[in-house]
Amino acid sequence: MKADDEWASTLELLERRRAPYAGPLATIAGDILRRFPPAGGAVLEVGAGAGQLRDWLPASLRARAMHSEPSAAAVKALHRRAPDAGAVRAPVEALPIPNGACGAVLGLCVFDAIPDARAAAAEVARVLAPGGRFVHLMDMATLLEQPFAKLAASGLVPLPNVFGDPGDHEWPLDIVLLQREWLDDLLRFAGQIGHPFSKAFAPVFAPFLAAAFDAGAATNAFKAIAGSGERRRALAATLTSVNRLFAAHGHPTVDPLPFHSARYLQSQLKTTFAGAGFEIELSEIVARAIRRPAAADEKTIRYRSLCVGHERLEDALPRRLLAAERLDPGPGDIVVEAGVFVFVARRV
Questions:
Q1: Which of 104, 118, 176, 259 has its CA 20 to 30 A from that of 219?
Q2: What is the torsion angle, in degrees rounded to the nearest 10, for the CA atoms of residue 41, residue 42, residue 46 and residue 50?
Q3: 238 and 94, same structural domain?
């Protein structure tokens, strides 16, 4: 579990990232909960954090809502945000709620961080009344430790998608995969010929190629590239260059495999909740767009979007938009879109 100061830093970062998209994110949450209304009984939010989802709830549901959260720091932040909110400290795997007491269980960016998703889904099923719904929203990038461990076991190494715009796909294509043995051979070849790919990226890929896989170290190495435009450009250029030389020396070439981290979570949720006695009612990206006056720090851009953690800032509308409706910015305006992975399952 994270220390309190680390939780506080994480919650503050999420607040800042979500702030420009508050309008469309709240619209998505409200629309989904009107389309899939809770049954009678309490509305329980699990993994409530500092109460962001509570802010997005329609007023009628907010009055029925109670919140569970394992972190003491997060519960304190939630009470500062909403002093009248009912909150208990509890993990989703062990909720202090009677059987069948809830008409809905809600979560915002929760189930990618749960070590035992089957136990959590069983506990959600226990507290839900028959016909009650589980509604999970994912507006940020998924946590990567669990999928990276599974990829390592399959001999695959994840790279940030530096070869195209992740937003060109309905589900952001944020990761591409290389065969571990092939990458190991490529790095060895680059070192032998003195190619800069080896010096720049051999230390980065070391956690992925180590005999004992450390998911935390590998994830940190991945983020060091993904979070830096300079490092992303360097990886694309040097990997392309050394791969050509590798092929010219008679070595095999490989095409990177696509991997959508949000779609991985989608497959996990579908399998887990179907096995826990739920009917899957919705499992897709839901997007909304608004037009609003540009803020002081948005004067040079006309479009911005956030789709499951992937952000775009553009000086004109891009070729592919998230939402079905097309809005054009007027003078001094900006078009803002949000895309959220929404998962809804009904207890049968």
A1: 118
A2: 160
A3: no
